[in-house]
Specification:
The complex is a heterodimer of chains A (230) and B (107).
Chain A lengths: L2 H12 L4 E6 L5 E5 L9 H10 L3 E5 L2 E8 L4 E5 L3 H12 L3 E5 L15 E3 L3 H5 L10 E5 L4 H14 L3 E4 L3 H13 L4 H4 L2 E2 L11 H18 L4
Parallel strand pairs in A: 5-6, 5-8, 6-7, 8-9, 9-10
Antiparallel strand pairs in A: 1-2, 1-4, 3-4
Helix pairs in contact in A: 3-8
Chain B lengths: L5 H12 L4 E10 L9 E5 L4 E3 L7 H14 L3 E7 L2 H5 L6 E10 L1
Antiparallel strand pairs in B: 1-2, 1-5, 2-3, 4-5
Classes of the chains: A alpha/beta (230), B alpha+beta (107).
Chain lengths: 230, 107
């Protein structure tokens, strides 16, 4: 591998941009395709497919074995609400190598005693995103878990605007219907609002906080690995 | 699960910048229950120091040896390993897996 290609790959990663290293397995020749260059590339279709799934792998290009090293930025999970479910969710998410941040302006909830070792931000979501927490992007998942529209809604709006790959919100269908009305009034299109997964999590009849955390994480993995439903 | 082998490639670049000879090993194909997914990296320097993992510990020794040869002759190579031998069993790795590893020098 040429050193300049390795450097370019690391530059993309540091900037939280995806890139794919294309290697001819037989002779070792390589080129780097940045996220923004995929659409115009001769291998656009397989590159886009591997990027969407976040998976490296072999493909055949004119009969030659070609390896795609897919580099996507580390996935972050932003949890709104330092609630009971979050206490189960945060350590499980870290076990999946997600970089977790829990945001809750209520200091009684957002206490280090309740979240040992977890990145915890005791600010309103809006303030947090413009201050302590790195901006949301397409490699972020956001789970809004407070049940309080004052806290959840601004975070959901920010996640939709940033194009987070996963946006989930806790609450019954009735709660969500009210949320849809509020977001519509705030100017969000039905398509964008439709990206919110509510009720949050895969339907596994989860009952306890830990089970709900499993349902949420399974849904995040499914969306990340399978891509959006077609 | 979702993160890439971030630190490995950063280490490869910084080792090379420090003037060390460096090779990069990448899992390019797996069959059966291989312990490390496709895309996993191991970086090796000219003294045999390494970082990362391509098999969870089972074939790293052989990969390091091949990497030193790649550093010496500059030719990329693909090596296939069965991760099903007695050593693998003893260290508790999943049996029946096989992996193919691409090893290349960082020039």
């Amino acid at each position: 591998m040429r050193r300049d290609i390795l450097q370019a790959l690391n530059v993309e990663r540091a900037a939280r941009r995806a890139a794919i290293l294309v290697t001819d397995v037989a002779d070792g020749t390589q080129r780097l395709v940045r996220e923004g260059e995929i659409a115009a590339d001769s291998l656009a279709e397989p590159l886009a497919r591997h990027l969407a799934a976040g998976r490296s792998g072999l493909i055949a290009v004119e009969g030659r074995q070609t390896f795609l090293t897919v580099q996507v930025p580390p996935v972050r999970l932003v949890v709104i609400g330092a609630v009971h479910i979050s206490q189960a969710l945060a350590p499980m998410a870290e076990a999946l190598d997600l970089a977790v941040t829990v945001i809750d302006p209520r200091t009684a909830f957002a206490s280090p005693e309740r979240f040992p070792g977890i990145d915890l931000v005791a600010q309103w979501p809006d303030a947090a995103f413009s201050d302590t927490v790195p901006p949301l992007d397409a490699y972020c998942a956001l789970a809004a878990l407070t049940h309080d529209p004052k806290i959840d809604d601004p975070a959901l709006a920010a996640a939709l605007e940033a194009g987070c790959f996963y946006v989930g919100a806790l609450g019954s269908r009735k709660t969500h219907a009210a949320r849809v009305v509020r977001l519509t009034e705030a100017g969000f299109s039905p398509e964008r609002i439709g990206r919110i997964r509510a009720p949050i999590g895969l339907p596994i009849s989860a009952a306890t906080p830990a089970e709900i955390a499993v349902a949420i994480l399974a849904e995040i993995v499914a969306v990340r690995r399978q891509g959006p439903p077609s | 699960m979702l993160s890439t082998d971030t630190d490995i490639l950063t280490a490869a670049e910084s080792w090379r910048r420090d003037g060390r000879a460096v090779a990069l090993a990448t899992v390019i194909e797996t069959w059966g229950s291989a312990p490390r997914p496709v895309g996993s990296h191991l970086v090796v320097d000219g003294d045999g120091n390494f970082l990362g993992s391509v098999s969870g510990g089972c074939v790293e020794g052989a990969v390091v040896t091949e990497s030193l040869e790649a550093i010496a002759d500059g030719r990329p190579r693909v090596i296939e390993f069965g991760v099903a031998d007695e050593t693998a069993w003893r260290v508790g790795l999943s049996c029946g897996g096989r992996i193919r590893v691409l090893i290349e020098r960082i020039d």
